[in-house]
Specification:
The complex is a heterodimer of chains A (193) and B (63).
Chain A: H1 5-9, H2 12-23, H3 26-42, H4 53-74, H5 81-85, H6 113-116, H7 120-131, H8 135-146, H9 151-158, H10 162-185
Helix pairs in contact in A: 2-3, 2-4, 3-4, 7-10, 8-10, 9-10
Chain B: H1 5-15, H2 22-34, H3 36-58
Helix pairs in contact in B: 1-2, 1-3
The chains are: A mainly alpha (193), B mainly alpha (63).
The complex binds zinc ion.
Zinc ion is lined by residues 5, 8, 31, 35, 37-38 of chain B.
Chain lengths: 193, 63
């Protein structure tokens, strides 16, 4: 069965949302998706049908995203390096007492987290929590946890130090955990910002 | 020297990205036996990984 342009085009919205999540910039994401669709059309015959069209397109998209991230990280206009890059983690100080032990906000156990995965509402909260992270933090986190890249490759690609990389990942995990804890597991409703 | 929770959270985050040294692992293990907050933290950042991997599949084509 031959693949048509429609078969590809119908996944545009999915690809776009995926790219926006990774890149945090709609304009860049649009370009990347455009590029992906074009690349897919050019090699329609190469699609062997072992995987779904969506998986195939996502595979192409991932490569394009990594290229775009490499470019973005060098473009000071696209990323605000000053707010994201420093190793200052004092924004989490209020969680700990003066000795560095958990204060009144010590993590409590989450009730049946796995059930959340099949709850549409959960994914909305998750997406909003992820959106609240600073750009560069979000990008490094997505590279690591969504694209599954190794930390050394991420540092190399983005040309940042290993320490910096690990600080960004720490910050991402801390803030995402806090946000889900509060707005999903803790039940306090999330207001869109 | 007992780790603080703050230090323990840093180590737990690092452990998701690289192997810890023997010393780090030992300190962390000792801390975790004594600290329920950090045990919860560890489970939760592991859950974040599961969730984030799944997120791509969750994006709805129709929107
Ligand atoms: Zn602790």
């Amino acid at each position: 069965m031959a693949l048509t342009f429609q078969d590809i085009e119908q996944h545009r919205n999915y690809l776009l949302r995926y790219a926006i999540f990774q890149l945090r910039d709609e304009t860049v994401a649009e370009d990347v998706v455009q590029d992906t669709l074009l690349a897919a059309v050019e090699k329609l015959e190469a699609f062997a049908g072992q995987s779904s069209v969506k998986t195939w397109l996502t595979g192409i998209l991932k490569h394009k995203i990594i290229d775009a991230q490499r470019r973005m990280v060098r473009d000071p206009l696209l990323l605000d390096a000053r707010t994201d890059e420093d190793g200052d983690l004092s924004d989490f100080d209020s969680l700990f007492d003066t000795q560095g032990h958990w204060g009144s906000d010590a993590p409590r156990s989450w009730q049946s987290p796995d059930q959340s995965l099949s709850d549409q509402q959960f994914w909305k909260v998750y997406e909003e929590c992820a959106r609240r992270m600073p750009k560069r933090t979000a990008m490094v986190f997505a590279m690591r946890e969504m694209l599954g890249q190794e930390i050394d490759d991420i540092c190399k690609n983005l040309d940042i130090t290993a320490t910096n990389c690990s600080v960004l990942l720490y910050r991402a995990r801390m803030s995402l955990r806090l946000c889900l804890d509060k707005h999903w597991f803790g039940g306090s409703p999330l207001e869109k910002t | 020297m007992m780790l603080s929770c703050k230090e323990a959270t840093r180590l737990m985050s690092m452990q998701m990205d690289r192997e810890l040294s023997m010393g780090e692992r030992l300190q962390l293990a000792l801390h975790l036996t004594a600290c329920a907050g950090c045990r919860n933290f560890r489970k939760q950042i592991g859950f974040l990984r599961t969730v984030t991997r799944k997120f791509g599949d969750q994006i709805d084509d129709s929107k």
